[in-house]
Specification:
Layout: H1 2-15, E1 33-36, H2 38-41, H3 47-59, E2 69-71, E3 77-80, E4 86-88, H4 96-106, E5 110-116, H5 132-142, E6 146-150, H6 159-173, E7 178-181, E8 199-201, E9 213-216, E10 219-222, H7 224-229, E11 243-245, H8 257-269, E12 274-276, H9 285-291, H10 294-300, E13 309-314, E14 317-323, E15 329-335, E16 342-346, E17 354-355, E18 360-361, E19 370-373, E20 378-382, E21 387-391, E22 395-402
Parallel strand pairs: 1-2, 1-12, 2-5, 5-6, 6-7, 7-8, 8-11
Antiparallel strand pairs: 3-4, 9-10, 13-14, 14-15, 15-22, 16-21, 17-18, 19-20, 19-22
Helix pairs in contact: 5-6, 8-9, 8-10
This protein binds alpha-D-galactopyranose.
Length: 410
């Protein structure tokens, strides 16, 4: 008998390494792309809107451009049933989440959902505290593919424990679900969450303003430029499978066309998740053009997965570089001035630099790159000579610098 006990104990010990807590690997090798309901609809969501968004993601080509996650944010919840399993709001989602997931999947998309580590969500719906394993099971049963996990009502809860608990619950439920952590950067998740989530919010909420701070009773929301400034020191923490999340996009939510272009470009340069937040069923051609620019998306989705670097700021201009695969670079100048159009000359030789995060050098002194303008979609010479450039107010120029031999005429 004792022998059997000893053998059982040894076997259990041998099994421990394979039972190691883990997140699902391989789900976010490039920054996740999709749409989320919060920025436009807040709590005013229902299944008709979500189905309509699914339809339009296919019809407009967004799905085929890479936006595959359709994420329901706060306020989809009803009550827990008698066994404690969460149910959808029966008025807003009368067909239930499983039927919605089936519909979304039939369109070749994936469905995301939202919960909170605390007792209640930020919108006052039931949180997952004390129900983590049950909620994970329910999501897996419904066919959920993505979970955004918020941080309201979490007094006296330890973030590392709370997020690891939900990660383990998701893993135990067995369905690969991408785990998006939303604790606003309070506990510096970039320093501890690489093996916990696939992305972590780095800041408080974004608002639909290019350059402003919006104060509310007890909290603050941030314009795109304010959020951008908070990412500066974090680039070394991001990479394939684990991304800094500067919050969802506000493109198409009231910014000017220039601002939309600048916002989308900067989120692409910093390898941010590209989660759209506008009403895709009603967008201007200009908005569509921004979010569907495949060459800009390719900068964001570059397999190297390196977050871009601001290497120079002068007056209202910021100069950014992002290393890409095959020794290419994305190069961008952002003009933060509200009114002033700026004409300047790029002297590539001043931008010879070594990036220790990617271990790559621009090497303008030994290499000539061809310049492709990703917004005008034109070839614009090469880096062998000085380049004159005009940057409109609150706008960008964005180039892909490549070393491929030129084909066709000069
Ligand atoms: C928090 C999050 C937002 C959104 C709302 C929903 O503020 O940061 O992104 O999910 O909650 O209530």
């Amino acid at each position: 008998m004792r022998k059997i006990t000893v053998i059982t104990c040894l076997l259990a010990l041998l099994c421990i390494p394979s039972m190691k807590a883990q997140k699902f690997e391989g789900l976010a090798l490039t920054p996740p792309m999709g749409w989320n309901s919060w920025n436009k609809f807040a709590c005013n969501i229902d299944e008709t809107i979500i189905r309509g968004i699914a339809d339009v993601m296919v019809e407009t080509g967004l799905r085929d451009a890479g936006y595959i996650y359709l994420n329901i944010d706060d306020c989809w919840h009803g009550e827990r049933d008698s066994l404690g399993f969460i149910q959808a709001d029966p008025v807003k989602f009368p067909s239930g989440i499983k039927a919605l997931a089936d519909y979304v999947h039939s369109k070749g998309l994936k469905l995301g959902i939202y919960s909170d580590a605390g007792r209640k969500t930020c919108g006052g719906r039931p949180g997952s505290f004390g129900h983590e394993y049950q909620d994970a099971l329910q999501y897996a049963k419904w066919g959920i593919d993505y979970l955004k996990y918020d941080w309201c009502e979490t007094q006296n809860i330890n973030p590392i424990g709370a997020y690891n608990l939900m990660r383990d619950a998701l893993h135990a439920a067995g369905r690969p679900i991408l785990f998006s952590m939303c604790e606003w950067g309070n506990s510096k998740p970039w320093t501890w969450a690489k093996n916990t989530g696939h992305l972590w919010r780095t800041t408080g909420d974004i608002t639909n303003c290019f350059d402003c701070v919006s104060r509310h009773p007890g909290w603050v929301s941030w314009g795109t430029m304010q959020i951008l400034d908070m990412q500066d020191t974090l680039r070394k923490y991001a990479g394939p499978g684990h991304w800094n999340d500067p919050d969802m996009l506000e493109v198409g939510n009231g910014l000017t066309d220039n601002q939309n272009r600048a916002h989308f470009t900067m989120w692409s340069m910093i390898a941010a998740p590209l989660i759209l937040g506008n009403d895709l069923r009603n967008m201007t051609p200009a908005t569509k053009e921004v979010i569907l620019n495949k060459e800009v998306i390719a900068i964001n989705q570059d397999p190297l997965g390196v977050q871009g670097l601001k290497f120079l700021a002068a007056d209202s201009l910021e100069y950014w570089l992002k290393p890409l695969e095959n020794d290419e670079w994305a190069f961008c100048i952002l003009n933060r001035s509200k009114e002033t159009v700026i004409n300047t000359t790029i002297d590539w030789q001043k931008f010879n630099l070594y990036d220790d995060v990617s271990d790559k050098s621009t090497a303008f002194d030994s290499k000539v790159y061809n310049i492709r303008n990703l917004w005008t979609k034109k070839e614009e010479g090469n880096t062998a000579s000085l380049k004159k450039v005009t940057i409109p107010a609150q706008d960008v120029v964005l180039y892909r610098l490549n070393v491929k031999p030129k084909t066709g005429k000069k």
